[in-house]
Amino acid sequence: xxxxxxxxxxxxxxxxxxxxxxxxxxxxxxxxxxxxxxxxxxxxxxxxxxxxxxxxxxxxxxxxxxxxxxxxxxxxxxxxxxxxxxxxxxxxxxxxxxxxxxxxxxxxxxxxxxxxxxxxxxxxxxxxxxxxxxxxxxxxxxxxxxxxxxxxxxxxxxxxxxxxxxxxxxxxxxxxxxxxxxxxxxxxxxxxxxxxxxxxxxxxxxxxxxxxxxxxxxxxxxxxxxxxxxxxxxxxxxxxxxxxxxxxxxxxxxxxxxxxxxxxxxxxxxx
Length: 271
Hints:
Keywords: Isomerase. By secondary structure, the chain is of the alpha/beta class.
């Protein structure tokens, strides 16, 4: 069964970014539960930002799950990238992602690699950057498997990366890996920019897709842009997707309205 999720950011440096809730974990769990969400996706500064046991306590008290944990603070706070030409910085980037896998894994929550994939340029060619990214995922994917969760890799739009921008490119990249524990994140906002046909791209992605960011064309809540979600919903049913659809959206016009609009759209399309 498809499940709903919503984002909370604890990273002050990302203030203004596309996360629905910003007032702490307890507030996010309380509001998400009241609206009928299944889970929370957590964007944290690092694994030590939340007191030991606090996330588990909120999960137990609310009955909600943790859908995934973001790693973007590694880039936003520390400037770390898995494709940095400096090997010591790549090692630090791997260590940060590994720590976030260790943070989310015990709760059944996979880590997402988005902005930490970096970019190519300067002395690093496109192919060299892809080689460096693959090198990291070959290590981090099996580490995630120790928790029986995948590692989630997110193609981004052209304004955020120049590495892998479409689902098809993502599938091609995953096929070169020896690990089979890396899945794609299909973000409907990025796809609105890069894909000629979002539904067709989802069908092409098939079982390589392990997570969905459920958001409209303008990165506002579903229903506040021009995306036609019916063909997308049909494509997800066709590929047998049974993971989370998570609102990684701007809190516009405010967090509560964005959360309400998203769950209304989710229930209309998938329940």
